[in-house]
Amino acid sequence: MLRSSMDATVVPRTPAVESRLPKVGTTIFTVMSALAAEHGAVNLGQGFPDFDCDPALVAAVDEAMRHGLNQYPPMAGVPALREAIAAKMDALYGHRYDAGSEITVTAGATQAILSAILAVVHPGDEVIVLDPCYDSYEPNIVMAGGSAVHVPLLPGTFAPDFERIAAALSPRTRAIVVNTPHNPSATVWSQADMERLAALLRPTGVFVISDEVYEHMVYDGERHQSVARFPELAARSFVISSFGKTYHVTGWKVGYAAAPAALTNEFRKVHQFNVFTVNTPMQHGLARYMADPSHHLGLAAFYQSKRDLFRAGLDRTRLVPLPTRGTYFQCVDYSAVSDRSEEDFCRWLTTEKGVAAIPLSAFYAEPFEQRIARFCFAKKDETLALALDRLAQL
Ligand SMILES: Cc1ncc(COP(=O)(O)O)c(C=O)c1O
């Protein structure tokens, strides 16, 4: 028989694969979460809530499913959801995106960032990223055939270093990725920062990929400085956000990108042949839930009180908290406790002291040690209390 004769003579062999992303390995987030599980540590490492979302949101999705909204939606997203996003952005940032031609619903912010990069970056192009930064940017740029040009944020304040950004601009620069509120430093860009960015890019054809997934987590009465507020920037930007962060549903992976029609047109070409569409009932449920703006407008107060609780507890420890003006992250300077490297400190903290954290060095392309670790405080108050009791022993 053909099958048995082939079995006897042919050894099945997977051809050698030349990696598109040779530098990518297991991320520190996976490593620390596995260590946390193994050692029973309180996991303040990875950025996601340990509490559930509003049951009303689940009910809205449930109702959509029961009403048969279970087939492919339009490629760009359910119109009601795109309308709700357009209305929200107009209300908050004073820029009216056209729901038909300028907003696309995506599989989380992650896919929006990738699609924006694939849409505009060509082989040989450069894209400026500001370190420390979220880990998907550089692999996305490499997938597009471009290269990342890393410009550090100013050490100490994590403010944008416009002189170094200006020096990094070249005729090959196609885009810059900005992220405010900022993961991991928990800083936010000011209006003056945005105006400086606009002035810097004015004579160029550089696009902005603006990662604003923490847009609703800005504290102490400050305003989120979306690029959408600045017409000059909005005209060259993809504004990207995530329902996962805003509504405590990181596992749903639904986000969106808003951009001028010409950019959205290219974005959708990539999106169409990448995911094509994002799941239908979630989109209907989110559209209904967005009708009540208190759900997103109340988020800052909700997380600000968690931030304050966590920081008050840190006063009982030898860790020194850095300012947190946005996001659900709290960075600490641990130099009074240890002179280990950041990664060693976080491993030790997880395995020996029972609290998982992420080393800031994991967010830099070049090794850079500042004795800073990042905690996530999107956790139940009792989870934070348990972690703080352990940290007080350091
Ligand atoms: C800065 C930043 N951008 C993007 C994302 C990804 O968002 P999503 O889960 O919607 O893909 C995250 C998630 O941690 C993030 O911190």
Spell out the blueprint of helices and strands.
Blueprint: H1 2-9, H2 28-39, E1 42-43, H3 55-66, H4 79-93, E2 103-106, H5 108-120, E3 126-131, H6 137-143, E4 147-152, H7 162-168, E5 173-179, H8 191-201, E6 207-211, H9 231-234, E7 237-242, H10 243-246, E8 255-258, H11 261-272, H12 280-290, H13 294-297, H14 299-314, E9 320-321, E10 329-333, H15 342-353, E11 355-356, E12 358-359, E13 372-376, H16 381-391
Helix pairs in contact: 2-15, 3-12, 4-12, 5-6, 5-11, 14-16
This protein binds pyridoxal-5'-phosphate.
Task: Describe what this molecule looks like in 3D.
This protein has 394 residues and is an alpha/beta fold. It has 16 helices and 13 strands. The strands form three sheets. The protein has a seven-stranded mixed beta sheet with strand order 2-8-7-6-5-3-4, sandwiched between helices. Helix 4 runs parallel beside helix 12 and helix 5 crosses helix 11. The longest helix is centred in the C-terminal third of the chain and has 16 residues. The model has no long low-confidence stretch (mean pLDDT 96). The chain binds pyridoxal-5'-phosphate. The site of pyridoxal-5'-phosphate has 14 residues, from helix 5. Pyridoxal-5'-phosphate binds next to helix 5.
